């Protein structure tokens, strides 16, 4: 019995060291959800494959999320952020360069991009948008908050900004049936 206990204790200790060393290296920790999709949490992630779920995203480079992926938290990248069609983000998105989202992407927070902003058709952003260059929204997209743009603003057909729009160049181009709460 004592040998069995000692063997189990050694196995447990070795397993603990293996887990600590993987986490200390900043490698991805992957777990399987009840639905069988991988959920990742990482200290430096550049890609989230289509259909996968992750917690907060931090990238020391650009970040790309595949179609239908979910981020339960924020997404921050030193360079560009690209979200595929049907992606969902529950927090804020911060891009050190351009921001691009595919059709039907949904962000519950705000978006900040140091370069251009381009959203796909039917996309929804639940907060403010701050852009360091030009802003282009897809058809029937919705921004719930205010939009602050250093460059020109182009609104896709039927798109809506419920808050105000601030264009650094004063150029705002409206697609058919596009609406803005107010222009400043």
Describe the structure.
This protein has one domain. The strands form 2 sheets. It has a 16-stranded mixed beta sheet that branches. It has an 8-stranded parallel beta sheet with strand order 3-6-9-12-15-18-21-23, with no helix packed on it. The protein has one helix at 2-24, and strands at 29-32, 38-41, 47-48, 53-54, 57-59, 63-65, 70-71, 75-77, 81-83, 88-89, 93-95, 99-101, 106-107, 111-113, 117-118, 124-125, 129-131, 135-136, 142-143, 147-149, 153-155, 160-167, 172-174, 179-183. The radius of gyration is 21 Å and the shape is globular. Helices cover 12% and strands 39% of the residues. By secondary structure, it is mainly beta. The protein has 1 helix and 24 strands.
Structural class: mainly beta
- Rg measurement, Å: 21 Å
Could you tell me the strand content as a percent range?
A: 35-45%
Largest sheet: 16 strands, mixed
Secondary-structure element series? HEEEEEEEEEEEEEEEEEEEEEEEE
Distance between the termini: 78 Å
* Shape, per Cα inertia axes: globular
Q: Could you estimate the helical fraction of the residues in percent? A: 10-25%
When the domains are counted, the total is 1
* Beta strand count: 24
Mean pLDDT comes to 84
């Amino acid at each position: 019995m004592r040998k069995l206990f000692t063997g189990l204790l050694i196995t447990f200790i070795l397993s603990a060291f293996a887990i600590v060393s993987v986490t200390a290296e900043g490698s991805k920790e992957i777990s399987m959800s009840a639905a069988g999709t991988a959920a990742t949490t990482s200290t430096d992630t550049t890609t989230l494959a289509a259909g996968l779920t992750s917690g907060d995203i931090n990238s020391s480079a650009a970040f790309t999320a595949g179609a239908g992926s979910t981020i339960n938290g924020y997404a921050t990248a030193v360079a560009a952020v690209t979200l595929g069609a049907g992606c969902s983000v529950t927090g804020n998105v911060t891009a050190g360069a351009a921001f691009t989202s595919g059709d039907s992407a949904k962000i519950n927070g705000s978006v900040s991009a140091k370069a251009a902003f381009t959203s796909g058709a039917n996309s929804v952003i639940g907060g403010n948008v701050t852009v360091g260059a030009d802003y282009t929204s897809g058809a029937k997209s919705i921004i719930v908050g205010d939009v602050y743009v250093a460059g020109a603003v182009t609104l896709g057909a039927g798109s809506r900004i419920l808050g105000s729009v601030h264009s650094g160049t004063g150029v705002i181009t409206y697609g058919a049936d596009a609406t803005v709460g107010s222009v400043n």
